[in-house]
Specification:
Blueprint: E1 3-13, E2 16-24, H1 25-31, E3 32-33, E4 38-39, E5 47-48, H2 56-65, E6 77-81, E7 86-90, E8 97-103, E9 120-124, H3 126-132, E10 142-149, H4 153-165, H5 172-177, H6 187-200, E11 210-211, E12 225-226, H7 227-235, H8 242-250, H9 269-273, H10 277-294, H11 296-300, H12 311-328, H13 337-345, H14 363-384
Parallel strand pairs: 3-9, 6-10, 11-12
Antiparallel strand pairs: 1-2, 1-8, 2-10, 4-5, 6-9, 7-8
Helix pairs in contact: 2-3, 6-7, 6-10, 7-12, 10-13, 12-14
Length: 385
């Protein structure tokens, strides 16, 4: 390939003009280049470049995602092309429409050569493009691009900064709640359905305790948990490859197990394969009923200064669920509230200890609670042994 031509639409905005079009991802990869911001020659006093470092975990996730049947990147990859490598030819009788030819630059006395493989500078979208490098050979994936012609480093940096600083982090509780509309079964959807059912259960331990949209529900004062926290906690007990499972759901393959799948590592995986959401719900409900029975004052106190029924407490408890479940059963089944309660009864934590001073907010407090709960089982075993 000596050049690449694509049809584009001119867009005028306050920063300047740019062009939007579509290109096959493999063709864009062939001409794309980046400039990661780093220290020049290891010198901390000299920094150059615009892009962030690639995050390997994110690239692996996107590499899996791009090969799924429902994969989509609806937002543009933003690139810059030197004016030395770009020719814009107006399309006859189509105002604002051009054929943009991107080609190499041979170089001159002032400017070094620019190869075709370096003509498209990625301003935003490098992780998506890195994921697309692992697209299956028999698949195609067209991406939409926003193209700035002749942008200098100041313009590139401004565009990158504005795109990334202006992004508002989406409320995960809202995202999970939109799974009401999903047709296919997935771990996300199942966890969402369990969370909603727990919140609606009239005499349940989490009745009206869950903020479905991540914000206070009008007329309800006892909500202590965001739906996102509840769903994320449940996901640790379901199949781990969420996007792959969603793809299976689209084709009615929920019951297909993965190699090395083991319910002792993810205790709800067999229920999930059997599409037995009711048993998962009953287990979780019985578990938190037992928590409320063992520590009623701490569980029912929704005032600030208590952690058991808030995110820190929930995260420690839902992590401990697997240990408790495995301690009781030899094969997946519904565990009764009484069985869970007998386990909790042997754990020596006083109700007045569930405070932020003992279990600090965040991951450290949740881990400390989990370790205290797990330690209670270990002590019970040693006494019995």
């Amino acid at each position: 390939m000596t050049s690449k031509t694509l049809r584009v639409l001119k867009v005028d905005q306050p920063l300047g003009e740019f062009y939007i079009g579509a290109i096959e991802s493999r063709e864009l990869i062939e001409i794309a280049t980046t400039d990661v911001r780093t220290f020049e020659d290891g010198n901390p006093a000299s920094v150059d470049g615009i892009q962030r470092q690639l995050a390997p975990k994110r690239v692996r996730t996107l590499s899996t995602y791009v090969n799924l049947e429902y994969a989509t990147f609806p937002t543009s990859i933003i690139i810059s092309v030197s004016e030395l490598c770009a020719s814009l030819i107006p399309v006859k009788d189509c105002e604002g429409i051009f054929d943009l030819e991107i080609s190499a630059f041979a170089g001159d006395e002032e400017t070094p050569p620019i190869s075709l493989q370096e003509t498209a500078f990625i301003i935003d979208g490098q992780h998506r493009l890195a994921g697309l490098e692992n697209l299956d050979k028999d698949k195609s994936f067209e991406v939409n691009v926003s193209i700035f012609v002749g942008a200098d480093n100041t313009d590139k940096a401004e565009i990158f900064s504005r795109v990334n600083l202006a992004q508002t982090k989406v409320n995960k509780s809202l995202v999970y709640d939109l799974l009401d509309y999903a047709r296919e079964t997935s771990p996300y959807k199942v966890a969402h359905e369990i969370a909603v059912a727990l919140n609606r259960e009239p005499e349940g331990p989490l009745h009206n305790r869950i903020k479905r949209l991540g914000i206070k529900t009008p007329g309800i004062d006892d909500e202590t948990l965001a739906q996102a926290s509840v769903v994320n906690g449940l996901l640790r007990h379901l199949p781990p490859e969420q996007e792959k499972e969603r793809s299976k759901g689209l084709f009615g393959l929920v019951g297909t197990k993965e190699p090395q799948e083991n319910w002792r590592k993810r205790v709800f995986v067999d229920f999930y394969r059997e599409e037995d959401t009711a048993s998962m719900l009953e287990n979780v409900s019985n578990y938190f009923h037992a928590v409320a029975h063992r520590w009623p004052n701490a569980w029912n106190d929704v005032e600030p200064g208590k952690i058991l029924n808030r995110t820190t407490g929930y995260n420690g408890l839902i992590r401990f669920f697997q240990d408790a479940f495995l301690e009781i059963v030899d094969t997946p089944r519904v565990v009764s509230e009484q069985e869970f309660y007998e386990l909790f009864r042997a754990i020596e934590i006083d109700e007045d200890q569930f405070t932020p001073s003992i279990f600090p907010p965040g991951g450290s407090g949740a881990s400390k609670l989990y370790n205290r709960l797990k330690g209670g089982i270990s002590r019970q075993k040693s006494l019995l042994g």
